[in-house]
């Protein structure tokens, strides 16, 4: 089988550590292996990066395991070609799960061009995605809380939406504040009337 990468690295990433195996094919059919373990702290990932460069390894493959691959990818991508593989494309061939063997298997498959890489957008697009997703989450939370607020008014028999054009407007807020302050006392309806009230 044709060798796609003469020197490459397979990486098995976990929450607190990663195991990397550099696979080198020089002359003979049988490749040589260099295996090393690193923690997933930034300084250790940078040591991993330097280890790769020192061994003239510029092609790396790792599984897209949860979010654990992201910080590793972020610190490597500027100088190293990093391929992120869907686990199903690797596990289907790897067989039994073993931390000490997984990185070697990934490296072997990658060396022969048997790993299909996932699409990873550029850094600017990834950052924009994070901001967009977070904004969507905040908007969804706001909508949920608005519904909760309206339901609370309905349960308390405060039919504010029947007399105001915007239940979350300034006038509505003033009315609710007044009702809360005057709780248990007689309410002066003229005092809380506003120009936004419906006729």
UniProtKB/TrEMBL annotation:
One GO BP annotation of this record: DNA transposition
InterPro entries in the record: Transp_IS110-like_N, Transpos_IS110
Transposase IS110-like N-terminal domain span: 9-155
Segments passing through the bilayer: none
Range of residues in the leader sequence: none
GO molecular function: DNA binding; transposase activity
Pfam families, sorted: DEDD_Tnp_IS110
Protein name: Transposase
Organism: Eubacterium oxidoreducens
